[in-house]
Every structure is written in C-alpha cells, then in structure tokens.
Amino acid sequence: MLKQIKGQKGFTLIELMIVVAIIGILAAIAIPNFLRYQAKSRQSEAKTNLGAIFVAETAYLSENSRYGSFSEIGYALAGTSNRYSYRSPNAGASGGTAGSSGTAGVDLIACGTPATCTAATTAEGANGQIPSAAQISPTVAFTASAVANIDNDTLLDGWSVNDIKGGLDRALPDDVTMG
C-alpha cells in the first residue's frame, strides 16, 4: 500500500498558482464587459417605454389635435420596478398623472426600484442633463424623456423621444459609454 501512495502524482504549488493567475486575468477581462452588457440591457427599458409613449401620444394627437399628458394619453408603467423616471410636458391636464408628481407644467412618473434610483424632479430632469424640447428642436410638439442612474456611479443615463420619434437612437448623456 505504501508503494501505491508513492507512485501517485499531483499538482505542484507553482502549477496551481499559474492556474489561479490565469483565472484572475480572465475574470478581470470578463467582469467589466458583463457589467457593460448588463447596463445596456437596462437601457432597453427606457427605449421600450418611450416608444410606447410615442405611440400613445400619436394616437392621442389623431383624436384630439394636440398632445396630452401621461394621464390624458392613458399611459402608465406596468409594475413598480422601473429604473427610470419619465417626464413629459403637461400639455393639457391641470395636474400630473395619478401616482406621479407633475410640477410646473411637467408630468412626471418617478422611478420605482431599486431604492437607490434618482427621481428627476425638475422640468429639465435630474441635474438639468436631459435636453428639453426647445434644446432638441424649437418646432418639436412634444418630448418625453427618461433619466436614471443605471450603474450606481455619478453619471446619469438619459433618453428622449419627440413627435418625429427622434432621440431613441442614442442616450444623451450615455451612462454606459461614459461611465
């Protein structure tokens, strides 16, 4: 039995250290890419919801000859797990959407979760980083925007859509590429 134990071979400490180093290098490359792809997938929430707002606004325009607020167009977010805060000019309603905080001519749907989300509270969005309709084009009839901090850094991610469906091709500012 002693001969069987002497004949067995194992890995040396150096071989194990090399394997650990290789795994560490691969993880250092893979983790940032994974986090960036995760943040990009979170951006699809804003693009999808703003696309739905565009469709609702367009339908409302065809029936009423003007654009409306979130409550007028019948738009509400499904669930409470939205990461973005959405805002739109409060075109015709006297107050904000139910469950939102419409202020100073702005209809606002605040973010839901995570608890660390930063709700945009002014007409220009959080920290004034999201462009208004006048900044995008002086002839735009409506602009809805979404703002969030999707990767818990100091930068915000912002998307917007207007009456010609402009703005959904890139974020301004883009938290994923700038972060």
TrEMBL record:
Q: Give the source's domain of life in one word.
A: Bacteria
Cellular component aspect of the GO annotation: membrane
Record keywords, A-Z: Membrane, Methylation, Transmembrane, Transmembrane helix
Q: Tell whether Membrane is among the UniProt keywords.
A: yes
Query: Where does it localize?
Result: Membrane
Write down the membrane topology: Single-pass membrane protein
Q: Which residues cross the membrane?
A: 12-35
Q: Does the keyword 4Fe-4S apply?
A: no
User: Which NCBIfam families does its entry note?
Assistant: IV_pilin_GFxxxE
This protein's name: Type IV pilin PilA
Can you name the source organism? Answer: Nitrospira defluvii
